[in-house]
């Protein structure tokens, strides 16, 4: 089994890689973030992409979407964040596995082998979250809110999304209303806590 391990925290990545390499049938290539993972995918074939979800540059969900569009390998998200929005979005994008980082090495390897045999493996705790509250944001509202959270002005958001400034304002207003927030920053904070951003 050849794994591309994508994790932005060096110590966590190193420890996880060392644990996975204890299995003689497993080869691990490490990537420090989603951008680095995309370069690795262009150069080599992998059986599984095992990725964190919250990373700079390119999130685990964005990486999952890219892999689904361009490669045939399995994708497993390994996270400490049990947020309903993350699980729901990952399932919609066709994730093969969604596991918590506090799982044992044995259960992780067993899950990876099951996934390679065509099964989908979702941690039971995370599966229950997926049944919960549904993500109310549209993709465009999510993108606008994410840019607002980065401190971008309405004009900058419009430019980044190739839309009119009034349209950007409408997306932000809708997102604020859906989050029952007082402003765009508050809306972004609420959406982030729920895993919708």
From TrEMBL:
It comes from the Bacteria. InterPro entries: CheY-like_superfamily (IPR011006), Sig_transdc_resp-reg_C-effctor (IPR016032), Sig_transdc_resp-reg_receiver (IPR001789), Tscrpt_reg_LuxR_C (IPR000792), WalR-like (IPR039420), WH-like_DNA-bd_sf (IPR036388). Residues 2-116 form the Response regulatory domain. The modification 4-aspartylphosphate is found at residue 52. Pfam families: GerE, Response_reg. One of its GO terms (molecular function) is DNA binding. SMART domains: HTH_LUXR, REC. This is DNA-binding response regulator. Residues 130-195 form the HTH luxR-type domain. Gene3D superfamilies: 3.40.50.2300, Winged helix-like DNA-binding domain superfamily/Winged helix DNA-binding domain (1.10.10.10). Keywords: DNA-binding, Phosphoprotein. GO terms for biological process: phosphorelay signal transduction system; regulation of DNA-templated transcription.
């Amino acid at each position: 089994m050849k794994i591309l391990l994508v994790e932005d925290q060096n110590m966590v990545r190193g420890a996880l890689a060392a644990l996975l390499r204890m299995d003689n049938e497993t080869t691990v290539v490490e990537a420090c973030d989603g951008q680095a993972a995309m370069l690795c995918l262009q150069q080599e074939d992998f059986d599984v992409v095992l990725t964190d979800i919250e990373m700079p540059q390119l999130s685990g969900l964005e990486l999952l979407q890219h892999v689904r569009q361009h490669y045939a390998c399995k994708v497993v998200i390994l996270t400490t964040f049990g947020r309903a929005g993350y699980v729901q979005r990952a399932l919609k994008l066709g994730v093969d596995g969604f596991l918590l980082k506090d799982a044992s090495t044995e259960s992780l390897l067993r899950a990876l082998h099951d996934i390679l045999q065509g099964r989908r493996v979702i941690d039971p705790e995370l599966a229950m979250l997926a049944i919960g509250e549904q993500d109310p944001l549209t993709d465009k509202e999510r993108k606008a809110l994410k840019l607002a959270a980065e401190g971008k002005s309405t004009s900058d958001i419009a430019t980044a999304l190739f839309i009119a400034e009034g349209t950007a304002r409408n997306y932000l207003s809708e997102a604020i209303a859906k989050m029952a927030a007082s402003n765009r920053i508050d809306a972004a904070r609420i959406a982030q806590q729920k895993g919708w951003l």
